[in-house]
């Protein structure tokens, strides 16, 4: 993981998660019969005056893999009042992200420490649209978890378990190694992801019977662009731009709310 980013001590932290923006170089261009730039701009405009401690961008920020699409996002967020953390999805180009997001409010840290919590941003980008979390990434995460005593929440792009939709063919491949590692660390309370274009929550309980009866909470964040239907073929719906608001308390409790413009 990167050098940790440390938040000031507070009793509560409020985070905004946005994902799957699918921006193109042309702000007027279409994606799945909507204009993704306008969707995102409208949502950010509505939320900018709210108090957030951080903004988390969890992948597929671009659709056309262009530097210009990232620069559009950077321009939208140039006056955002909180730190902006980001991680790549299958559509993203990490080198271009680093180039476009080199200045504040963007922060490249993948380990974020707060009073009572640690948030870890995982890179699940692979060589195909499906997700990958290979052995070097597993070893790095294992080391971080061994040295972390606070409750932990993970953020990534790809979903680790099927949800009953066409996107499952591009989920995290061979997720057993990651899930097995997480069962060894009861301080890991949950994992949130993008990619599915669908708001949902589930509990993974395999391996959690002893010492962790609650299991691992998994939360899918809806997209700022379009949502995918829970069907075997690729179907999308324009339900307006969406996201997820997180509330983490120093006592280890966490609550979230899906939002829609």
From TrEMBL:
The keyword Iron applies. Pfam families: Metallophos. Keywords: Hydrolase, Iron, Metal-binding. GO terms for molecular function: hydrolase activity; metal ion binding. Residues 14-198 form the Calcineurin-like phosphoesterase domain. It comes from the Bacteria. PANTHER family: CYCLIC NUCLEOTIDE PHOSPHODIESTERASE CBUA0032-RELATED, PHOSPHOHYDROLASE. Belongs to the cyclic nucleotide phosphodiesterase class-III family. This is 3',5'-cyclic-nucleotide phosphodiesterase.
């Amino acid at each position: 993981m990167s050098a940790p980013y440390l938040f000031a001590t507070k009793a509560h932290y409020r985070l905004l998660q946005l994902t799957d923006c699918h921006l193109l170089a042309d702000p007027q261009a279409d994606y799945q019969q909507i204009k993704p730039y306008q969707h995102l701009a409208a949502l950010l405009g509505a939320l900018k005056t709210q108090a957030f401690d951080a903004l988390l961008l969890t992948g597929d920020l671009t659709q056309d893999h262009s530097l210009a699409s990232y620069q559009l996002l950077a321009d939208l967020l140039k006056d955002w009042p909180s730190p902006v953390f980001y991680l790549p999805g299958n559509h993203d180009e990490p080198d271009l992200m680093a180039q476009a997001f080199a200045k504040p409010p963007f922060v490249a840290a993948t380990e974020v420490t707060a009073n009572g919590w640690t948030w870890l941003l995982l890179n699940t980008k692979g060589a195909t649209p499906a997700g990958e979390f290979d052995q070097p990434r597993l070893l790095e995460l294992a080391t971080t978890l061994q040295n972390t005593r606070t409750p932990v929440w993970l953020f990534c792009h790809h979903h680790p378990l099927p949800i009953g939709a066409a996107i499952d063919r591009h989920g995290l491949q061979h997720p057993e190694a990651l899930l097995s590692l997480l069962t060894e660390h009861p301080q890991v309370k949950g994992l949130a992801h993008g990619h599915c274009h669908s708001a949902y929550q589930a509990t993974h309980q395999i391996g959690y019977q002893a010492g962790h009866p609650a299991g691992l909470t998994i939360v899918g964040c809806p997209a700022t662009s379009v949502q995918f239907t829970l069907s075997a073929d690729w179907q999308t719906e324009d339900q307006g731009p969406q996201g997820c608001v997180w509330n983490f308390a120093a006592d280890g409790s966490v609550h979230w709310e899906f939002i829609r413009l």
